[in-house]
Amino acid sequence: MAAGTNLIPFPDPVRARSSSAESTGTPFEAGKKKGPEFTTFVQDLAFRTTLPGGQGGTTGPRLTQEELYPARQAFSLAHLTALRLLKLAVGRSQRALSAAANGEIVEADTEIQKLQVLLPELFCCRILGDGFGTVVNATICAFEFLSGDTPSIEQIRTFNRVFQFLREKPFLGTDEADSQVELLEAAQLNPYPAELTDFLSSDESLR
Fold first, then answer.
1. Rounded to two decimals, what is the model's pTM?
2. 193 — pLDDT class (breaks 50, 70, 90)
3. CA distance 117 to 95
4. Residues β-bridged to residue 48
5. Is pLDDT of 94 > 80?
6. pLDDT attached to residue 74
7. Facing residues of 49 across strands?
8. What is the pLDDT of residues 11-60, one digit of tens each?
9. From CA 90, how far away is CA 139, in angstroms rounded?
10. Helix pair angle (105-123, 77-101), 10° resolution
11. How far apart are CA 202 and CA 116, in angstroms?
């Protein structure tokens, strides 16, 4: 007597459908319309594909557009524009950093001025999210705080890090945006609007 087992035999779908067709006396002949049993089996194979190396495989359920691109603005015009501008910002801040490290102050200042020109257009891409707008606005305020002076090497390095982070993660959250603002503060830059700073200063003097 065979040993007990918990395995339940599962019929082969091809054999089961062939047997069904033979029992009804309707074999599959070339040039003739197939019955509903065969049609259903073909639909079951709709997701069968060919894997690399010629091996057959079966794909899972198809992903929806929302699952493929969870961020609503992904690859929109604003997103592509922001990526282009951030690539320029990273490059110019890197060149300014190299020039400043070599003592070429004029070249470093020129690259910084070219970098500042990008920021207003970059701020127009804030539709990507509140975090994106917060960081870009903080960099604009930080440059205004410098009042035209060339930033130090450490400050240029901080700008470069912020733009690199924003390029890699434009759909950042509020907490991540706050961490980038804190980086600017740590580099002795003021990432807040001058009006807010003046207001807080006057309020403090009244106490």
1. 0.62
2. confident
3. 16
4. 58
5. yes
6. 75
7. 57
8. 454 444 444 444 444 444 444 444 444 333 333 333 333 444 445 454 55
9. 13
10. 160
11. 29
Phi first, then psi, for residue 62 (nearest 5°) are -70, 140
In the chain, pLDDT over 70 holds for what percent of residues?
A: 58
How many Å separate Cα 124 from the centre of its chain? 18
**Phi, psi dihedral angles at 132 (to 5 degrees):** -60, -50
Question: Quick check: 146 pLDDT over 80?
Answer: yes
Neighbours of 140 (CB within 10 A): 17
Strand pairing partners for 57? 49
Domain ranges in the chain are 78-201
Contacts 24+ apart (CB under 8 A), 14-17: 14/41, 17/41
Q: Cα–Cα distance between 200 and 107 in angstroms, integer?
A: 36
**In the block, which residue shows the tokens 């082969």?**
12
Residues 6+ apart with CB under 8 A from 29: none
